[in-house]
Write a structure and sequence with these properties.
Distance between the termini: 40 Å
Helix content: under 10%
Oligomer: single chain
Radius of gyration: 13 Å
Largest sheet: 7 strands, mixed
Order of helices and strands: EEEEEEEEEEE
Strand content: over 45%
Structural class: mainly beta
Length: 126
């Protein structure tokens, strides 16, 4: 069974930084896309960033380009989301997700991601 466990959320001030981690287990992820999504109460889940495990290709939402960086550590089976220049509107629950049959440019479609972590709260104060 695929397991995704997020960590690293918390409280930050506007302009500050946080780094989220997603530890993946239960599968060989070499042909997977790994994504970060966020969701506020009562709103739809929103794409943030994704990375192809095999190629390292990345994709970002326009709202986070230039501020957030997604990366992966193959040896540790871990995906990271470095969040800089945080804004109050970045406040959300952030979830890690995995999608099989990736490899090129990673997908940003929520519906294509099958495995999900439990989520971690990120709160940015003004």
């Amino acid at each position: 069974q695929v397991q995704l466990v997020e960590s690293g959320g918390g409280l930050a001030q506007a302009g500050g930084s946080l780094r989220l981690s997603c530890a993946a287990s239960g599968r060989t992820f070499s042909r997977y896309d790994m994504g970060w999504f966020r969701q506020a109460p009562g709103k739809e889940r929103e794409f943030v960033a994704a990375i192809s495990w095999s190629s390292g290709n990345t994709r970002y939402a326009d709202s986070v380009k230039g501020r957030f960086t997604i990366s992966r550590d193959i040896a540790k089976n871990t995906v990271y989301l470095q969040m800089n220049s945080l804004k109050p509107e970045d406040t959300d629950v952030y979830s890690c997700a995995a999608r099989a049959n990736g490899g090129g440019i990673p997908s940003s479609w929520v519906s294509e991601y099958v495995y999900w972590g439990q989520g971690t709260q990120v709160t940015v104060s003004s």
